[in-house]
Specification:
The complex is a heterodimer. Chain A is mainly alpha-helical. Helices cover about 55% and strands about 0% of the residues of chain A. Classes of the chains: A mainly alpha, B alpha+beta. Bound molecules: zinc ion (2 copies). One zinc ion binds near residues 101, 110, 113, 114 and 192 of chain A.
Chain lengths: ~325, ~140
């Protein structure tokens, strides 16, 4: 077994230099692209994530090696096996990532990555602390069962993560057409991080955007609908611990108060925002409401201004 | 990852955050006009239709009345905004203005003359009472 390096470790100096470069660009183009408190939170989450990764890494590797015993094929370390492993691992990432947005248990870990209202290279480093606990590693097990050696899979997974770093930026508009057609790009991933109803639950790709096009989850970025980044219910502050654990806390409270076993399971494994009585927003209800609003049209060009306070009799008319 | 890399990463984290601060990136957002507040609320809350908005005296918060019985409360958060949609929120008026419970730990304070704050609070109640449909669709 070759001694493969951890690509993420090797990339850390480049991450630091590129964040620095992007900050300097922001200084001259648009200072609001970075916010020091947000940056500190993102980077601390990234730092904590690497520590959590080291702690869980041994167990994940042991599990992978155990599964690998039952492999269907013996796969060696020839270069083309690396290439095939990279593509299949990226498909596994797509499935993982889609589940991470559609199943609250996985979302509770992944939401960390989306909880910044900024979209810059420091956002890329805003990574989960609870990935092991939420069982995200299960999605890679099929690769070991096929026969890809664990060391190879973890190596290509690291390369995948390093690739995803540079796409977290507003500095790059669009890449050349052929590249946008095949690869995940800043433009495609801005859509993924946006809370605009049109963009919710779209573009789950890691490296190859073709998975989204293949499985019907692709949405192109539009110049007339600029992305607004963050989550539907944005965090009230920059607290690192809140960012790392808030959705787990939400699950705990909901499950505790749930009226039935069905509700308990729904709160854990239903889509984010699921509730037994449907009183909360899911991405479906948000999209539907947005759609209805679009269809009601643009008949809202009425004066929107009053800094004085009208009395109750001036309460707004209700639309039908 | 070894301990040297961990220590180096932590140092880099603090250094980068320090540089962001030294470059004076970010800044404190302000809500300039009621029209801005309405636009922010409509952008952030899918389906929300703003009727009119009240911004507080220093621009550090705004209340947007929707056409369907809900209200949006906006407050700056660094260089961005936090927007919460509410129905029938609890409020309290005082000399410094109007305090509104949003479900977050700290209520949001709109700096307004007390009479205006009380009238605005009454309007919040009236808006909720008026809305019998409570339809969100
Ligand atoms: Zn995601
Ligand atoms: Zn991302």
């Amino acid at each position: 077994m070759p001694d493969l390096p951890n690509p993420v470790d090797l990339a850390v100096p480049a991450f630091v230099l590129l964040v620095l470069a992007e900050m300097i660009v922001a200084r001259f183009r648009d200072r609001s692209r970075y916010c020091p408190r947000d940056t500190l939170t993102s980077l601390m989450l990234g730092f904590g994530s690497t520590i959590a990764g080291v702690l869980a890494g041994g167990m994940v590797f042991a599990l992978a090696s155990w599964v690998h015993q039952f492999r269907l094929f013996d796969i060696g370390y020839a270069w083309y096996w690396f290439a095939i492993a990279f593509v299949l691992d990226d498909l596994a990432y797509y499935v993982f990532h889609r589940s991470a947005h559609r199943v609250r248990w996985f979302w509770a870990s992944h939401v960390i990555h989306h909880s910044s209202q900024h979209y810059n290279l420091s956002t890329a480093l805003r990574q989960t602390w609870t990935g092991f606990f939420s069982l995200g590693f299960l999605f890679r097990l099929p690769l070991f069962l096929i026969g890809f050696p664990p060391a190879m899979v973890f190596f290509v997974a690291g390369v995948n993560l390093v690739y995803q770093f540079w796409i977290h930026t507003e500095v790059i508009g669009r890449m050349p057409r052929w590249f946008e057609a095949v690869m995940n790009t800043p433009s495609h991933h801005r859509v993924h991080h946006a809370t605009n109803a049109r963009y919710l639950d779209r573009n789950y790709a890691g490296v190859f955007i073709v998975w989204d096009k293949l499985f019907g989850t692709f949405e192109a970025e539009r110049d007339d609908d600029r992305p607004r980044y963050g989550i539907v219910h944005n965090l009230p502050d920059f607290n690192v611990l809140r960012a790392a654990f808030h959705e787990w806390w939400g699950i705990t409270k909901d499950v505790w108060r749930a009226p039935s076993l069905y509700a308990r399971l729904g709160y854990m494994f239903g889509p984010p925002g699921w509730s037994p009585d449907g009183s909360r927003d899911t991405s479906e209800t948000i999209k539907a409401r947005w759609q209805a609003r679009q269809e009601r049209g643009q008949h809202w060009k009425k004066p929107i201004s009053s800094s004085s306070v009208p009395g109750p009799e001036a309460a707004p008319p209700r639309a039908a | 990852m070894n301990w040297w890399l961990a220590a180096g990463s932590l140092a880099a984290v603090l250094m980068l955050a320090g540089i962001a601060w030294a470059l004076r990136l970010g800044g404190e957002n302000r809500i300039a006009t009621p029209a801005d507040a309405s636009r922010i609320a409509e952008d952030w809350i899918a389906g929300f239709e703003a009727h009119d908005a009240v911004i507080c005296s220093n621009g550090s918060g705004a209340l947007v009345f929707g056409t369907r019985g809900s209200v949006a409360l906006i407050r700056p958060s660094g260089a961005r905004f936090i927007v919460r949609e509410m129905r029938n929120p609890r409020w309290r008026s005082s000399e410094s203005g109007l305090e509104i419970e949003t479900g977050d730990r700290t209520p949001v304070r709109l700096y307004l003359p007390q009479a205006e704050a009380a009238a605005l609070g009454a309007r919040l109640d009236a808006t909720a009472d008026n809305d019998v449909s409570n339809s969100r669709a």
